Amino acid sequence: MLMSVVLLVEKERLVPNILVLRHSAGFEHSYLPDCEVVFKQLGIEHGWNVTTTHRLDKVTPESLAKLDLLVFATTGNLDFSAEQKTAIIDFVHVGKAFFGVHNATDTGYDWPQYGAMLGGWFDGHLWHQQVG
Question: At 23, is the secondary structure helix, strand, or coil?
Fold first, then answer.
């Protein structure tokens, strides 16, 4: 009997829908192409529906309603409309998941609700790096 319950639970398991937004409105981190590949590979390995995009217009109240997880791999002040910003914050408030990859803390300095959702913003590295 236990085996049938386990099989039934597995059969009824919902497949999460994930949107990975990779958009740089500032510094373009070199790992970002790999980030997309990794999320797609994780989707294949775990049976997730993973979509990746660079386009901000793909984040809408309608698209968010179909998602379980929104991932930001972003930098800079993103040119979201007020409606999009509200939809993202509402998405989290209703219990949906948000995952900010590394540089997502370097996003939305002009969007106080985003900073509050994350708990703060990027304030520099602990080390100094020579570039160039």
Answer: strand
